[in-house]
Specification:
Length: about 450
Amino acid sequence: MTPHAPHAPHVDPAAGAAVKAADRAHVFHSWSAQGLIDPLAVAGAEGAYFWDYDGNRYLDFTSGLVYTNIGYQHPTVVAAIQEQAGKLATFAPAFAIEARSEAARLIAERTPGDLDKIFFTNGGAEAVENAVRMARLHAGRTKVLSAYRSYHGATSTAINLTGDPRRWPSDNGSAGVVRFWAPFLYRSPFHSATEAEECARALQHLEDTLAFEGAATIAAIILETIPGTAGIMTPPPGYLAGVREICDRYGIVFILDEVMAGFGRTGKWFAADHFDVVPDLMTFAKGVNSGYVPLGGVAISAEIAATFETRAYPGGLTYSGHPLACAAAVATIQVMEDEKVIENAAHIGETVLGPGLRELADRHPSVGEVRGLGAFWALDLVRNKETREPLVPYNASGEANAAMAAFGAAAKKNGLWPFINMNRTHAVPACNVTEAEAKEGLAALDVALSVADEYTV
């Protein structure tokens, strides 16, 4: 791996203040009460780090929003975007464009099974929207099953499929979505004692849900291969294969959402590769080009693609397969190959992050469980290891969230920008993070967890 040379940030507080003032005056931020936020003014980023205008540098353990899989400002990808901009900056999606064709070819070569047709979108939510539309049209049915503890995006269908509280304000109750419990042994809804029990009981629960909903009314089942924001819960052995068998038996389309878990994040091209399972449709985004230019898509099986061979698919996007985004994807995939980024993610997970996080769990009473693969890990923080009571209540805010706020502040004070969701912190650095950088992150987590420990009982 090429080490990331630490950048010496240029200190310019006045410029930072101007950026912050313009932001506060005009930018409307997502998922936020506008008057209660204080966005950091970012001056630059490189590799696994970013920095502010005051000279503070942070190791990014969030990878943006878990998408800078090759880090910030990789020169090969930046050059590819510049070259494409000079050659053909944009063109309508109805035409065959070199960058678009090559990106589709490279993605199709890496997707499992016969997922060889690629429909491009601008991001993950649109990928989910179109995957569900394809499934409904192919199956001639309407209802879709999705899991609690899931996130599939913020557009209309995607937010209704989402299982976490971000759905609640936009849930219209009429989108044809039925939710079920996916396996999660640490907080098992089935009172299981082993992974085998959790797998069997979760599959039986899914069968029961189909029986009461009417299997013949279900168009698709959508699952994050490994749920991301909801907690990085790796499914037990046999579960995804069991869902595949259920879908085959009832003629249901199986959709795997790999928006967060795909393109090296788990130490393989796709998380599905860990489980030897091939879905009918697979959504992707984020890591496909490290987020340098917005891009997502749906990888489509031969059977579903055939549905639209002589019947028009009723969907499209003005910027589908945008040349700059596709050129970035081509360059990113090449970087992943040439620099062995996926192998690095697997190595770091097996030898540094996994062992290091488990060692932290042994020493800190606030760490209830460590879960993950590759560069995709979560720490489940608790008030009590025996009862497994979360460190903060579900969907906590304000004073109720004080413990996690204190943990986050401690991490940032020690130069680590943490990924925090509810009672969890996720360790999701760039997939080409070095061993030294990963250990730096673990050391900062160690200090921050000592603050979280103060809230345990």
